[in-house]
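Title: Prediction job returns without error message
Component: structure pipeline
Severity: low
Priority: P3
Assignee: unassigned

Description:
Job completed but the reporter wants confirmation the result is attached to the right record. Sequence as submitted:
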Amino acid sequence: MASMLVHAFRNVPTSVSRAAKLSTRLLSSVSHTHSQAAQATSKKTLAKPGLRNVVLVEGVRVPFLMSGTTGLLTRTNVPKADVEYIVFGTVIQEVKTSNVAREASLGAGFSDKTPSHTVTMACISSNQAMTTAVGLIASGQCETVIAGGVEFMSDVPIRHSRKMRKTLLSLNRAKTIGQTLSLLGKIRPDYFAPELPAVAEFSTSESMGHSADRLAAAFGVSRAEQDEFALRSHALAKKAETEKLLKDVIPFKVPGRHTVTKDNGIRPSSVEQLAKLKPAFIKPHGTITAANASFLTDGASAVLIMSEDKALAMGYKPLAYLRDFVYVSQDPKDQLLLGPTYATPKVLEKAGLALEDIDVFEFHEAFAAQILSNMKAMDSDWFAKTYMGRTSRVGVPKMEKFNCWGGSLSLGHPFGATGCRLVTTAAHRLIKGGGQYALVAACAAGGQGHGMVVETYPQK
């Protein structure tokens, strides 16, 4: 695995927002590690004739932090002259840095000739950033792309109410003092009520937590099952952290404060403690609580993606091949969080693989109820026939292969950054366990989802 050098970029423009600064500091360096040419493994490869191999060279992230705790600033660098494109994902956008990828790349010292753009696709925004990079490389447009994602939930933009916005815009157009005074006289106390960003569906006006509660009820997922899965996530994350398996985490020095070295949302507990928590959304009978749902998180992630030929020519030892991927969409009300159920069979069929061929599963854990509901949907012949147009069930991943180093419930979920964490973790787990294939899957707001097959790079 390529080693990592950390460079500080001191001259960050003061106009760049916190999220942009976070991305700026994360565009981190990967040093050259000389490697031997790829050697064949005992299993078949998913390389396709006439299609360029795209590889994940390295992935990094800052420690994921519960929003409102510690601020985030990280740094990375890659040989800047070789980076041809930068694409980042984000969800809660700051108006002043709506193209956070561009602001971050300029702030980090990349050439102003390096195109950069920002994508948003809710919780799979950095998934979209990565597959955009794959497309650019596979089509021959680029050889080297940095993809990533960022979210800074501790400082989200808060808007004036619509009434106040309308009044302020009208004031800007007022031509006389009389018109100005007339408009000011219409302002009422309720005009000052702010509009806070909500984790809710525009099309249904329903929060994701409410959707998860309804999904749990529909699939008969109990509160006890959810709490047990949440405990599993935290216990596995703590074990992985203790054993230093989370190799993508890079420490950083918060200016004027301490150095942050690890995720701060990992909190192993007990069934008894979790059972004491009250429902967070549907009260008093809901089953979603603060403990079995992912928490609001600050964080950023980045991956260096290259054509295999370019990576080897530069002396890198890639972590993995990025293979087939799919995006899916379904009903945003009743099936909002079932993206993995739909994406899993579709991407497996595209890759010519079966569920049993997968050595590592990395699924996004928005809620314990969401994961468990997906498991029940994937294990249901009725659901497959009724909603998916399939003759039989998808099948269920074996738990000994599933999210074995924790997941979003314990590590955290910065909306725009989670996808890169999933893919990088999948690659490291394949290397650690000697596996060949990983399947990454995630749900997202809007009833959308993503699935990707990752193939380990020959390690000999």
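Comment from assignee: result matches the submitted record. DSSP finds 14 helices and twelve strands in the chain.
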